[in-house]
Amino acid sequence: MDVAYLVAPFATWLVAGCAKFAINSLRAKRLAFGLIGYGGMPSNHSAMVTAMAVLIALREGIAHPAFGVAVTLAFIVMLDANSLRRQVGRHAEAINRLNAATGVAGELLRERMGHSRLEIAGGIVTGALVAWLIDMFV
Predict the structure, then answer these.
(1) What is the pLDDT of residues 63-120, one digit of tens each?
(2) What InterPro entries does the entry give (predicted)?
(3) Where are the alpha helices (DSSP H) in the chain?
(4) Which of 33-37, 45-49, 105-109 has the highest mean pLDDT?
């Protein structure tokens, strides 16, 4: 088995996660440990599925059936990140406002969910770059 296919998702997750932490920390002007998780730039999920699709394309070719499966999975993940999970975040914002207005105590729901198209594009670029580097060196 080609170890690159095992290295790619973990390396991409690490690179995208570190980039997200750095970007969030710069925006917040403090170490942003509380902002780690869903949402933000770049999209970890988009980066990981892109890295696998690009690595398959580089190693096996775009005519290989695995490339078709990887691209299909990537589209599903990216559409979900931009639509469903984004809407979940908006619902959480509304519920938190409603709870605050009515005096309901409790833990706030996490509002930062899903991704904008720019964050998904950042994930695509990150994933493609990591896959290219893995193809060259692993």
Answers:
(1) 999 999 999 999 999 998 888 877 887 888 888 888 888 887 778 887 777 788 999 9
(2) DUF212
(3) 4-28, 44-60, 65-82, 84-102, 117-137
(4) 45-49
* Spatial distance between the Cα atoms of 60 and 3, rounded to a whole number of angstroms: 14
Q: Which two tokens stand for residue 117?
A: 């198209």
User: How far apart are the C-alpha atoms of 69 and 37, rounded to whole Å?
Assistant: 26
Q: For 21-30, 33-42, 128-137, which range has the lowest pLDDT when averaged over its residues?
A: 33-42
Comparing CA positions, the residue from 35, 71, 65, 36 lying closest to residue 52 is: 71
pTM of the model: 0.85
The domain ranges of the chain are 4-137
Q: In one letter, which amino acid is 49?
A: V
Three-class secondary structure of residue 1 per DSSP: coil
> Can you say how many angstroms the Cα of residue 37 is from the centroid of all Cα atoms in its chain?
9
Burial class (CB in 10 A: 0-12, 13-18, 19+), 39: buried
What CA–CA distance (Å, rounded) separates 112 from 82? 12
Q: How many residues does the chain have?
A: 138
In the numeric block, the tokens 């980066």 are attached to 47
